[in-house]
Amino acid sequence: MYYFAGSNMTDTLPRHIPAYGNPGWGYDVFWRRLVLVLIGSAAALIVQLFPRPPSASGHVCKSLSNSIRLLSDHYALLLSCWGQGREEGLAAEKLALNVAETLAALDGPIALLRFEFSSSPFDSERLGQVKALCQELNQNIARLLYLSASLPEHLQSRLARQAGLLDHHNIGDVMAVLGVVEQSLKTGDPLPEVLPTPLLNRCHNYWMSHHVDIILSKDLIRDEEYRRFCVAISAYLKFLAAVDDLVLVMKGTLGESHIVSRDLLDDQYV
Fold it and tell me: Is CATH 1.10.287 the right assignment for the domain spanning 56-268?
């Protein structure tokens, strides 16, 4: 602030506001500010990518992988209870609700994945399909677990005999496929080309090889226990079909590895 000679300090007015730098004007200011904006944008991009930020798709994949592991445990519990007259199956509703809550909590994150800039092969649509199939697996395992405690033992033994529910080869195939899918969701690695799928077709081959006759009559239809037996067969077949669909979705997303000669595969089915 400056003062004129002979004037009082109280009636003075500011004549000049000092500037501490001269930014210039016109194009000279424009290109300097443009360079600064570009440098700031580049620095922000580097900070976002290095270190790599947590990925929402990675979080969803890990959550789905953990859900499949939990479903594998429920499948093992089903096999332990089936035909044994054990009452652990009565807890099926609580187990299914816990898994259902975990899967339902992923609806929001999966829907927001369409706005994420990520190099993950999984997009919102694919992960939504995986989640829906996990829900179907959960429902059918829960239904079978409940029937393991409520269906008469002779009908449980009949289903195990006819559909191969307790056959060691079938159990190994289901566990192997679920384990491979769980690991691929976690790591993003492609699935092997040759897997023991489709499981539904293997179940049909087991059925045909044991010469199982389908008996149906009016009396059986009126029998409530037999209708529950039919529900158990339907739930088991839907469970196998859901696992097959899960493999197809994963292969369609991640691809296949360990490719085997097509001639060798064709010879196996001649």
Answer: no
